[in-house]
Amino acid sequence: MTEASIIDGKGFAAGLRERVSRVAADFEAKAGRKAGLAVVLVGEDPASQVYVRNKNKQTVACGMNSFEHKLPVETPEADLLALVEKLNADPAVDGILVQLPLPSHMNEQKVIATINPDKDVDGFHVVNVGRLATGLPGFVPCTPLGCVMLLKDKLGSLSGLDAVVIGRSNIVGKPMAQLLLAESCTVTIAHSRTRDLPAVVRRADIVVAAVGRAEMVKGDWIKPGATVIDVGINRLPPAEGETKGKLVGDVDFASASQVAGAITPVPGGVGPMTIAVLLRNTVVAAHRNAGIGLDE
Ligand code: NDP
């Protein structure tokens, strides 16, 4: 059995950030201002704080403005909506991202619906969901778009391939399936009610696992030579003597890499793509909002 080739998401993301930096510099020269991303964080969730810090750092490193808005956890929903409206109206802001999850007294759908769809660089607004489903230009959620970039880089055309997406969330599974359909794959969406998941996965030339269950997808579920994209990020309980458990995906890498043709590792696969695609979406938004053409 040959070992799968490893899909280097970390390297691909670094290349994408370089391309974004060049496009952002070109935008600044043409528009006379930098592209700008506003990130709103409500509360003190430690994981969200790390994400937001990384987003801000990488936005600035790519030559764009980062506007950070930190609100206390007890902020009334009306105040958050007012801030989003203010950002909608601010010509220096091209992209708006409200870090999820929000505190429980806020309605996430209502907050997302308040973002101007043309500044919704996360692609969560129902208008962008509809644009994706109908093939119109819009913004596509960053993680699945990053997965498709990795797949096309590895395989070239995806046309006619059998793809199985495990997971049907609004932020990963569903947009992933739409993107694969747009690439002319034959798409199956599996979820917690799917019968005989191993048999469904065994049909696939492309497997995308977005479940949130550590090492669930085993090597003997994978068709030999298939391409496996592991979106899952799960932390195992710490082994003896460790303070922190190991990070693993939804795929059992040790067995799947013996069967697959290519596979993303965790960490270093899909994870680094998410912020890189967010920056790409922001620079695209800047061009569209300023009416400056861009070959995407
Ligand atoms: P959700 O919890 O929203 O969705 C999980 C999906 O998996 C659901 O559709 C659920 O089915 C399905 N599922 C649960 N158990 C099973 C099972 N036993 N068999 C088949 N399907 C099952 O998760 P997300 O989509 O938000 O995230 C998925 C994973 O991706 C997580 O590990 C998350 O950490 C990671 N992630 C990584 C990102 C990155 O790399 N940057 C970004 C976003 C997420 P049902 O709908 O029936 O309940």
UniProtKB/TrEMBL annotation:
Cross-referenced SUPFAM superfamilies = Aminoacid dehydrogenase-like, N-terminal domain, NAD(P)-binding Rossmann-fold domains
Q: Where is the Tetrahydrofolate dehydrogenase/cyclohydrolase NAD(P)-binding domain?
A: 141-289
Q: Which domain of life is it from?
A: Bacteria
Q: Does the keyword Oxidoreductase apply?
A: yes
Q: Which Pfam families has this protein been placed in? A: THF_DHG_CYH, THF_DHG_CYH_C
Q: Does the keyword Mitochondrion apply?
A: no
What EC designation does it have? 1.5.1.5, 3.5.4.9
* Assembly and interaction partners: Homodimer.
Q: Which family does it belong to?
A: Belongs to the tetrahydrofolate dehydrogenase/cyclohydrolase family.
Q: What is this protein called?
A: Bifunctional protein FolD
Which organism is this entry from?
Novosphingobium indicum
Q: What is the lineage of its organism?
A: Bacteria, Pseudomonadati, Pseudomonadota, Alphaproteobacteria, Sphingomonadales
Gene this chain is encoded by: folD
